[in-house]
Amino acid sequence: MAQSGRRDAPELPDFSLLKRLARDQLIYLLEQLPGRKDLFIDADLMSPLDRIANVTTLKQHEVDKLYKVELKPIVSTADQLCFLIRPRIQTVKWISVNLDKAAGRLRRYKIIFTPQKLPEFFRENFLEGDQRWVGAAGGALRLIHSLYGPFSKVYGIGQCAKMVYESWREQVEDGEQKTQQPEIGNVFLIDRDVDFITPLCSQVVYEGLVDDIFRIKCGSVEFGPEVTSSDKSIKVMLNSQDKVFNEIRNEHFSNVFGFLSQKARNLQTAYDKRRGMDIQQMKAFVSEELKGLKQEHRLLSLHIGASECIMKKKTKQDFQELLKTEHSLLEGFEVRECVSFIEEHINRQISMIDSLRLLCLLSLTENGDNCLFALVQSYGIEHLLTFSNLKQMGLLVEQQPGETLTVMESKVGKLVNDKTAGKLTDAFSSLAKKSNFRALSKRLVLIPKSGEEYDLRVPRDMAYIFSGAYVPLSCKLIEQVLERDGWTGLEEITRMLNGHEFAVSADSQRIVLVMFLGGCTYSEISALRFLGRERGYKFIVVTTAITNSGRLLEALLDNHP
Amino acid sequence: KRVSVVLFCQTGVYYGSKLELRAKPEDDEYWNSSKFSAFTFDDEDDEFTKMKESKRAVNSILVDDDDDDDDVEKVSWSGEPIGSISWSVKETASSFRSSGEQSFPKIDTAPSLPKQGSGYSLSSLFKAFTDTSTRAYAPELRKPKSECKDYMSDWSPEETVRRMRKGRAYSLERFRSLQDKLLLLDEAVSLHDGNVITAVLIYLKRSLSKEILFRELMVREVALRHYVHYLKEMGEQKLLLMQYKEHLNIKDEGRRRDFLKSCLSLPFSQDDAMHVQDHYTLLERQIIIEANDKRGEAEIFRKYPRKASILNMPLITTLYYSCFYHYGEPEGTFSSPANIRKTFRISEKQYILTALGARAKLKSWFDVDSLFNTKNWLGYTKKRSPIGFHRVVDILQKNNAPAQVLQEYVNLIDDPELRLSLAQKYKCHDIVIDTYKDLKDRQQLIVYQGKVERGSHEDRKIEELINNMQIRWKN
Questions:
Q1: Å from B468 to nearest chain A CA?
Q2: Which of A37, A283, B234, B396 has the fewest C-beta atoms under 10 angstroms from its C-beta?
């Protein structure tokens, strides 16, 4: 648990600075609308806001009432309205409609846009092809660069990574040049679509499991009555300040129970010390130790509750069989059995997200499938749009590639001249993305040799985050590039990943900032932490969002009007 | 505290301001009827003055040192941090020197075709131009009048898009010829800033006729996708499939059916057309079934009242419903499982799984039995299943099938290992014993003897077997 790693590993920069900076910016913006005002906040900004400020902060800066943005008519009677929103067309339209209504009244409005954490990045960038977030990602990089830079080396892979690099570079060039003691040396930018396989796999590391089952939101999780064994839900911050969580977050779930029960025994012993104490000792015990013990007690019982709940849920849904199917697909072993398992999963109308997940995994590892039809039959035709999204992303590949050009598209082609139409057709048919997972997995040795025992207690590589069955492609790429100090020798691999790799500049450093464009999973973070311990790196992970298979697929669902 | 997850910390401000519309006579053939509007500026706002003061007061490291920066409020197209502030940052900033750091090289980000995208529907554009409201729209800017001169200057397309990205004042108005406009667009695309691309597209949308804009976008994939996405967000555009999706808004099933019928003639791809046709047929069918079953006259409805209507349920749910309430009806009736199976080309596997679920729920073990019966040419019945019998056992067990039924199906599992494990799980002693006997595994039999009740039928059977010297045990 929480291995100490190499001694020469560098210290991490102080990131509380970012928090303070964000809070100060907020205050500055609020103060620009002097006087009493009502504040409207986008629902999904509440949790992020909690991380940097609280109601007292807002009150101090003359915020009177707080409203959630609900796209309903504004009831506030205040003379000054301030909106803290994500830059969405819909929200701004709503505000402008309300502006019209208040015509004739003297009212001050202020809109603050916050591109923080960009949860829509994944869908908008990869599905819709909208690059409006590239500048924001570049800006975030610039902020980090100005506080903790200068960077000495930037690696990247993916089209979006390239654009973010360029955007950052130009912003830095335009801005002020400076030198300071660099805290972050290397930067690695990676597009989510370079590796879809990893986020589609079931997570089995504790933090990932908690996210899969309870959904961690902005670093905190709400444990329901089934965990707290009372009738109340409890919101818990999950970070390194939680001593219990800090020790198990990166552990394979099979180790967690043993650890927790050992902890429970230690706690008991500590409590038992009270016996036979005299008054003086007791007094010292109460003032020095009891509080800490009680705190630990509370955390311990929560994590034990959560683990029990995870166990219960996972055994109920034939988790073993699900995992076996996933691992077989990754290995390319007994594929026919996998296909029939997935078919039955679909036919029995078990969880649609799981069915989609398996189907995408099958499609990505085996190039194509024909279960789509059954999927529509089981889960309803309203998912047609969802499937078309998945196909567009290359997550699902159908077996007849020639026919993907729709009738409408060829009509469009005719409208233009024949030459362009020909080009278009060529372009579209060449797009049918082939997944090279099998070949990639062989070259990068992503699947450890079968037959060997894998001791999850003493992990030997990053594969431990998937029970020793698979080294995440994304993290393996990062490892290889850092080791080789560039992409040399990886040409074949980048070709299979559609290229767009780059590596720029000077000497390499031990603190590596990895930026996932389109989201990363807790498992990937665990894997990088492991790699850091083994090789003496420190990883700082920046991401447009935390993702998992559920979120990734839900972003592509299109079954609502 | 090895790795921290850092969130993006950026904020931007958007200031409302006045917009004056000024119609101009047009000489450019590419202008359509809508007129572009020009800005006016107003520096008499005391809020603005206050802001300038407070900004100076909290000046910080992230403020650009460009000449006009101190006087101009940034527009938040890109969520650019407006002069950010913090005493804490100042502390860190004190170590800054202004000597140049080594700069990073430019890399080639030339747009290449996206790797996926075969499903990307250009067809969307046909629907795209239906509703072009001429609502005034522009990034608002506030500048003192003194800067008007600067504002009017003749920026190149490249300079213009760069100013746009940084949130400085800019004017698109001077790009009047088609060629200039396209240069501007290409420049924006090469900058990879979606906000700038979208802003330029909005200008093009208002100033070009749709045919021309459409023609030009056809050869500009990145711009096209931004445009389609923008229209989608504005609710001005409908993809073919989105048009179809509108049925979700229709509550009345009769009207929904009619709407679907009207969709049948839309030029869908072959696959999609089949799905839409199936959807229409299914809803039509469900309406008929619902009309009959709503009254719930048959005995089965009294015994197992329906929990919900069958309308708008997925196909497999409909099949399950039909296997539950309408089993055994002749193939000619719309509600019979056989008819649904045939109409919607349901595979044998899927049919058996669904029917098995429904009949097992009703505890009709006889029906379950006959699902798997096949007769060979001599007239013997034999059990056959397109799904593994271990799965059948699983479903039966979840429906609390009696031991006898369960045992029969456990016995049909081909793989001896799987058969053994399920037989042990469900305590089918005879099967365990017979399987060990077939495997000639005397040791395991002896072990198993410890698990059965002493003196029971099973105990005696094992006793008999292990003493049988005619069997050639492997151990």
A1: 38
A2: A283
